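The following record pairs a protein chain with its ligand, zinc ion.
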Amino acid sequence: MPYFCYLLKSNCTINSLCSYVGFTTNPRRRLRQHNGEIKAGARKTSSKRPWVHIAVVSGFSNKVVALMFEWQWQHPKASRIVRDQMRHIKTKGKGYKGQLQVLRAMLLTPLWSQLELQVNFVDIPAQSYFLSLGVMKNIRHETLSVTDVDDMHVRASSSASAARSAIGHAVEHAQEGESESVRCHICSQKARASTRMLWCCPDCGAAAHVVCSALQALESVDPSSEVLLPDTFCCSECKVCVKRIIASKMSFSPSQLQRASEPHDATEGNEDEDDESDPDTDDDAVIDEDDEGENEDDDVMVLA
Ligand SMILES: [Zn+2]
Ligand SMILES: [Zn+2]
């Protein structure tokens, strides 16, 4: 399932400086919830309707990473790394502009820049403002139409089919072509014997634990560098090296492997069900910077 973090701006008054940062699996549906068009969640944003998308960040490899990103974006002062990066900012922008400054600062940190996330702008002036902030070293950004955003979760779901094809490759490569015999070609443990994530070499189909491959790759990395994860993953069977982003698309969990080998009707429909129990609830913060507030130093007030 795809995961996104998004930035909204309130249009409740012409000069409203209310903005909101959240997490979702479906940006279109979530915006409709914020705007009260469909039920569920979004109680805290109800007084500042209507909301529009400013930007949607995509490319998170899993839910935990997306939630971490959301949290840092909402609480930049609580993160030392983001705080350090924010020190370079002379004038703090108001409303969504302030949020875009935080976003840029986050994307420039080693932690987030290595994930090759993408900022998808729906609002052109916001994108121009973002670009005016200075060096964009390795920050991927794109302009999307409202319709593009509506389709985002569908397009990103194709990464779920990437996982299915990774499993297919791995099974094909396994002895006897059976899912039970898929094993890590580094530690030789059977895939089903632990809960560790695996990835599958896109060239030869050999599977390995992500951890085993990462440890192997880190042996050649200078220990004094800030690298937490290697940039490339190499298949120790056929020696091909792929970027981490490709490896992450070719990754799967033992439970996905298990499900893939079960009869079809048992798995169909599961994804839809998950999708409806959207994990984003009302826990996220409304950032209220309504018009008059002039306290430059701390003009982000978190409601609730
Ligand atoms: Zn292993
Ligand atoms: Zn290989």
